[in-house]
Each structure stands twice: as C-alpha cells, then as structure tokens.
Design brief:
The chain is elongated and about 80 Å long. It has an eight-stranded mixed sheet. Strands 4-5-3-2-6-7 form a six-stranded mixed sheet, sandwiched between helices. The longest helix has 22 residues. It is built from twelve helices and 19 strands. By secondary structure, it is α/β, with parallel strands linked by helices.
Amino acid sequence: MPTLHTTASTPSKTRTLIFGTGNASTGIESECAERGLEIVGYIDNSPGKIGKSRMGKPISHPSIVQQHAFDLVVTASASHEAMKSQLLELGVQEEKIISARPTPSKWFSQEILSYFKHTLGEDAETLRTEKLSFPIEGKETNNIPRPTSESDDNALVERIFKAYCAAKNNLAQAPDCYRPGENWHHFLTTSRPNFYQAIESGDTDTLRSLLNNFARNELSSGILGGEEGFNAFINTSSTTDLVEYFSIWAHSIGDAPIHEVASPPIGNPYGYRVDGHTIIPNSFLNHYRASMLHQLIPLSSEITIAEIGGGFGGLGYSLLQRNDKTKYLNFDLPENLVVSAYYLGSLFPEKRIYLYDGANDIQEKLDDYDIFLLPNFSLAHFDRRTIDIFVNTISFSEMDYASIVEYLRKINEVTKHYFYQENLLHNRMQYKYYPTSTFPELSNFRRIYKSPSRWPFFSVNSHCHVHGEELFINTQK
C-alpha cells in the first residue's frame, strides 16, 4: 500500500468536530478538506459507534464534547436543530455550530474553489497531494475600464462598422442556406434595437459605446447572456454554478491555472472575484475546449483552427492565448461577428487581423493574417484542405436543416485532421431544433468518441438543454 503524504497551499487551522456519522455524513471529509477544515474527531449519539473510529479519528459521545480541543462543530445530519440544542446544553457556543446538511454546497460562509493535484514521490510509492485553494471573494459588478486608448478604440470600431456593412451587403446575394435561420433571424431582430438603429444611422459613437459594454447589454444576447444575464447574475446569491464548473474544468484538464480563465477587461465584463481575477463559468468551457483541441496537434506546430459561430470570441481568445502559433478563423453571422471582432481586435492588436472587405479570395490570404473574422457565407469560397481543426459548439442544432447540411459538407471538404462539435441531443426549450442524430454523415471522417456534455447547464440532467460532445478524425488524408 502506498503511504500518504499531504501538502496544502493553505495550512488547515480550523479544528473541527463532526456530529453525526450516519448515511447523511457521506462525503463530509472531502467537503471539510475543500474548505480548509481539519477534522479532529467525531461525535455521535449511537451507542454502537462510541469508542470506534472513522478515518483514523475517534468517535465519542457528545456528552464529552468539551474534552476535545476544537474550533467548530459541523452537524452532518438533517437533524441539525436537535443536535444544536444538545450542543448548547453542553456549553458549546452557538457561533461554533454550523450545519452541513441538507445543502452541503452552501454550509460554510466562505466558499472556496479547491482542486487536489496528486503526484508520486521519488520512491515511486509515496503519494503526494497538493491542495490548490481559491477563495471566492465576492462579485465583480463595478464598471471595468477598457485598457485601450480612445484613438485605437475609435479606429477599431470604424473598421468593424465597414466590415459589417460589407457583410450585410453581400449577404443578400448569398445562398439561402447561409441566411440566418428561423430561430436566429427572429432573435436577432428583436434583441438588438439600439445596435440596428446605430448601424442604420451610421452612428459609430453609439456602436462604440455598445461595444465598450457588450458583456452587459444587448450585443451579447444569445452569446453571453446580455443585459438579462447580467441582471440575473446581480440578483443571484448562489455560487453553485461557479463551484461546479470549476471542479469539472480542473479535473478535465488535470490542473487549476485559475489566472488563465480570468476575463480580460474588454466589454466591461462581470463575474466572481477569485484570486484577484474576474471569473465567469463560461470561461471554464472555452479554456477546456482550447486545451483539448491543442492536445490533438503538438503545440510546437503551426495550427489553423476554424470555428462556426464563435460568439463573443471566448474560444478564440483561449486558443490564441494558449499558443501563439495558432491561426484562428471565425465564421459567424454579421451581428455576432461585430462583437468577436471588437473583443479579439482589442486583445490582440499586435496580430494581423483580417476583417471582411467583400473579397471572395480569402483562402488565398491565409498566410498573410493570424486572425480571420468572416461572415458565415465566406465559407462557401473555401475549397481546399487548409483547416487543421474545425469546431462548432452550441449552434448547429439551432439552425435550419439546409444550413446544417451545407456547413457539414464544407467541413468535410476543407478540414485536414479533426472536427469537434458540442450540439443538442435533446431539447426541453420551446424552439425549433435538430438533434445530432439527424445530422448527415461526414464521409471523410470517423467518429472517435461521443459523450453527453460534462457541463451542468448542457448535461443530461439539465432542465433546459441536453448536449453531447463528439470528436471526428479525417480518414481520407
């Protein structure tokens, strides 16, 4: 048996007694470890348990609770009030008594994000465990100023405005399968009144103001939450989503580099304050996907990754941040492309960024730019295998079926190595959708794996959307 040696980033100082060792206490040890609590013993009213031990710590009767040196008593049972009364009668101070049940994720005032890294010692037997802990310091809802100068910001917005106008002009001549489908056409036209008014009047000042604050207004509706999502965040007191997404992310990538999921100060972001950073659950998804995609092809290699429906640019940012040899292309509806162009253009001013100018020979320019932000119909002009990895997440199933067929046809044609998607298996929301089981097959590809989504909002237990992850490899190279 390997011996156990544990090191922690923050030493455990809160000496804790656990009251209750029944079924309801299952998992209490790991919960205490995550919160930096050191279990010094257990107490229980059951005569058959007195004198025994659990996890190497003694189980004693509550009547001798004062013989223990402790800072806290955690009741691990639904009978908290009865246990609390018993402890008060035994002289335990009320402020030292807290309940861990029936809501274990909320039972301690200081929420902490924790991940345990395991390694072997030099003898190849000693198990070493390092605890990475990041206290949740609160919410960040104050305005976050952009880091770019006003002149640079103005110049970028002017370029974006021209690119949008060029895209909308050419969209009218694009095949029907590249037009916004029933779902997105209705959503866009009803969710962005100030944006369309600014565009129609040529008001780039209003457009710039919207982009400066896109994380909190209509421009991010449907891709980050918009004003509705921001207001919902303000009004929630739960950190459950953050804790769950952090845990899934850390275990998925095998580490917890929390600084890499920090929201950069573009678009007036909001989120939770963690380790001095502003964090939103969405960032964990994008960071994981970028990490997974980069594992497919060595980081030392130049790699071209294309995405259909890049939203506000979150995955693009994670990909480009992780590997400076990555070339990134985003094919999206012009309205959403405005946001990703501002986001990535502000974050990577040193990179060569191509914004649409109406040309059709974009594939010939791949060597000339690092980032391509293209209207979706530009994909029709790609006809050679120039993309290493193609990606789509959370959007194919919401399109008209003719659009799905066309996009997959092009992916089958221009992708050299891998196609990754995360799309609907089943939908509990009231809008038109197509599950991945109805998608046409990719004749040049073989599916490597398929799995229900790991993320709570998209998992098989979600009350809204059930998504699945799929990775395909090209077998016709």
